[in-house]
Structure formats: C-alpha cells, structure tokens
Design brief:
The protein has about 90 residues and is of the alpha+beta class. The chain has one domain: Double Stranded RNA Binding Domain, CATH 3.30.160.250. The chain contains 2 helices and 4 strands. It has a 4-stranded antiparallel sheet, covered by helices on one side. Strand 1 and strand 2 form a beta hairpin. The longest helix has 21 residues. The mean pLDDT is about 85.
Length: about 90
C-alpha cells in the first residue's frame, strides 16, 4: 500500500483528478467521491503497467512534500488529498 497525492479540480460538468507524482495518469467523475475512486483505480492500473514494463515506480512525495516546497498546484480552488493505492507485486 502506498499513498499518492491527487489533485481534484471542478471541470464544470464533472470533476477531474491527476497525481503530480505519476505523470499521464488522470481520471474523471461526476462527484468528488467518484473521481477519487476512479483515480485510485487508474493509479493502480498505471502502476501495474510500470511494474510489468520493469520500470521504476514513481516516488510518492505526498501532500506534505508539495506544501513544504510551496509548489503551485493548478488552480487555487483545487482539492488536494492523499489516497492509498495497492501496488501490485512484481512478477
């Protein structure tokens, strides 16, 4: 189990999410709860693909890291949270 920071933004008709630690992994959903669950599933699938390709997993920096670095995360109205994801074991 690993925690990754996700950024959730209101996209008008729905919500979108991404993780600054895992480039290219995004999800959408009709509610914050749905986009969070979809993002958890997207991260697990994405990380599984990385393992299958024998690549290094991205380091999960987490919310504390980004706040301490004063990094600009998209819009000021974005919702930031850590979510736990199951990381599959390498075969």
């Amino acid at each position: 189990m690993q925690e990754y920071l996700i950024v959730i933004e209101n996209a008008g008709a729905n919500f979108c999410a991404y993780s600054p630690d895992v480039q290219g992994c995004i999800a959408t959903g009709a509610s914050i709860e749905e986009v969070t669950q979809n993002m958890r599933e997207a991260l697990e699938f994405h990380l599984e693909s990385i393992i299958e390709d024998n690549e290094e997993l991205p380091i999960a920096q987490g919310l504390k890291y980004y706040l301490s670095q004063k990094e600009q995360i998209s819009s000021p109205s974005a919702y930031l949270t850590n979510i736990r994801v199951n990381i599959p074991q390498a075969a």
